[in-house]
Here is the input.
Amino acid sequence: MNITIEHNPSTIKLSELGVMSWPKWSCQPGKYALVFEERETCYLVKGKVKVYPKGSSEFVEFGAGDLATIPKGLSCTWDVSLFIDKHYKFDPPTSL
Here is the structure.
């Protein structure tokens, strides 16, 4: 699945990445089918989620204070148990 999670990254790392200037996205608890067209890096300010890749019963769980990187092309279901508030950024598309 290749979702990488860094639990409680330092404030220095978050500052170096510019996380607090990234756009924000939030959602209520529920299940959401998502497809990641580009690699996404996100930092959860609030919430908790289990991410199930399409066709799999295995999952990766992360929550408030975690920095996660989600690979390009991942089709998955986000099972959100606690309201999500996150900062995110997509890698720019590569030109051919």
Summary: The beta strands are 4-7, 24-27, 30-35, 40-53, 60-63, 66-70, 75-90.
